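Below is a concrete protein record.
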Amino acid sequence: MASIKDVAQKAGVGVGTVSRVLNNSGYVSDETREKIEEAMKNLQYTPNELARNLYHKKSGIIAVLVPTVEIPFFAELVHDIEAELYNEGFKIMLCNTDKAHNAELEYLDMLNRHIVDGVITGVHSLDVEEYKKIKKPIVAFDRYLGEDIPVVAVDHKEGGRLAAEILLKNGCKKIVHFRGSTAVESPYHERHFEFARIMKEQGVECFDYELAWNKFDLEYYKYAVKDLFDRLDEWEFDGIFGTDLVAIECMNEVIRRHKKVPKDVKCVAYDGTYITQTVEPSVTSIVQPTKELAKEAARLICELVNGKTYKNEKVTLGVSVRKGRTTMK
């Protein structure tokens, strides 16, 4: 495999001159440039992209931190982020942080060591103070990490309102409400506050089940649903509201107990990923627009990498309703 020294020797120039051509830095005459490019072509020389990027103090890589891509929402989001960043000339480094308790901190350390140019994080396991120490490009998804870190989220308050209105319209009087953990400050709490507020205002009973912090795997959701039914015992609920996987698992348990959906129990899921359309019955969902979320996150991280700064920047996108067969109206 040809080296930069081989190229320099064949072109009859110094290694520094070849380096200037490769990095597009400093003056090189057109005649010399042509000789170097011809030598590279003849030798089938492939520049070391990593070395060249590090020379410019850029790697061309954005780290995308998520708890796990086993969760359909994060899988869709990562897929869309990768597509957006590819169009901007970046590759992604996918970082699943559920493998170890300190994985998130290790990935942030890579940012400090110039291995990646920036981070898009959708992880909630690390203390905010750790992010404040990093003076590099970071975009947060659905979490507040400091005034210098832009946040991308949906209008969760609107999502909570829409879910509440659907269940009310379907005549629900006793509802199971799966809430996200209150251990971290996040925009997603707004949907739970709004949902609970409306139900209380309308005199509807709610059983609020707070899910564990940073637990997203299917086995945990199965445990949570079993725990829910153990706690409720004979409490006969007629409505379910939760994110896709936990809502579907709860709905499945209802069906296993010989009740009918939506005749006996109505279900509204939050996120609206593909799985809500692959189960039977298909699930009425509040849909987060992953493509638009990815586009905004990619735009912000690219602007930050290119030197733009933000103060208290929050991008909020709308949600939509997709009617399924788990509600009647």
Observations:
- The radius of gyration is 25 Å.
- The chain has a mean pLDDT of 89.
